[in-house]
Amino acid sequence: xxRVIAVANQKGGVGKTTTAINLAAGIALxxxxxxxxxIDPQGNATSGVGMKQRAAENGSVYDALMADDPxxxxxxxxxxxxxxxxxxxxxxxxxxxxxxxxxxxxxxxRRLKQFIDAVKExxxxxxxxxxxxxxxxxxxxxxxxxxxLIPLHCEYxxxxxxxxxxxxxxxxxxxYNPTLEIEGVLLTMYDERTNLGQQVARDVRExxxxxxFRTVIPRNVRLGEAPSHGVPGVVYxxxxxxxxAYFALAHEVITRxxxxxxx
Length: 263
Ligand SMILES: Nc1ncnc2c1ncn2[C@@H]1O[C@H](COP(=O)(O)OP(=O)(O)O)[C@@H](O)[C@H]1O
Ligand SMILES: [Mg+2]
Prior knowledge:
Blueprint: E1 3-7, H1 16-29, E2 34-38, H2 44-48, H3 61-66, E3 79-80, E4 86-89, H4 98-101, H5 111-119, E5 125-129, H6 136-144, E6 147-153, H7 162-175, E7 181-188, H8 195-208, H9 221-225, H10 233-236, H11 241-262
Bound molecules: adenosine-5'-diphosphate and magnesium ion.
């Protein structure tokens, strides 16, 4: 069974895109066919895997969402990436308009789900990179997902605004997607040298308990450099501490999925 994971947090700059790219690439490099779906109009996941120039060739996620029937001919929006077993549904700037244009479209909350359901069969994992808001695009991501992965930047206001995300998840469960679960809370950009980082990590674990991934993503310059080369950090420098952490995260996600499927 395919696992659809939405990477969401309405705050910008918390590591959503870095996590979506490197989790998806890490899972793919571990041997599992994976689809990365970019639903952020900034298209950072698309450029981060080096597909920005080719993003519009066969249409983007915008065209998929706005099609008369998002499930019809959906395959054309899926493109191969330079990473083995990793495919991409790209985003372009056009997607900026979708937040408003979707309002008057039938099934506006379920469009991404219709599309993903039509293409997910040949993938073991689908990873959705959500934009930094709780608007219709993120809502589509949560409706389409089996689970939500929440990256938290290890800084003072890490937990701020989280109640809004949890509230949105509750509404999505009640209205559209009753089985939506938390995949896990991920501590990102962790700097072990600061007391603040350690304190935030402790607070988050106290609050979310076993929902917090064992893996913590360190602040690592290689992860920050990789996007400008159009390759995932796990490919750019596979031996860096950042890459190692994302491989460990991929392993944690795969193991959890395997255990749940076996149970
Ligand atoms: N672990 C990390 N170490 C260093 N830089 C990081 C790390 N994670 C993300 N970054 C950088 O921080 C910025 C914000 O990260 P990004 O993943 O784009 O966040 P979001 O998608 O939540 O806005 C980007 O420039 C990214 O390259
Ligand atoms: Mg982003």
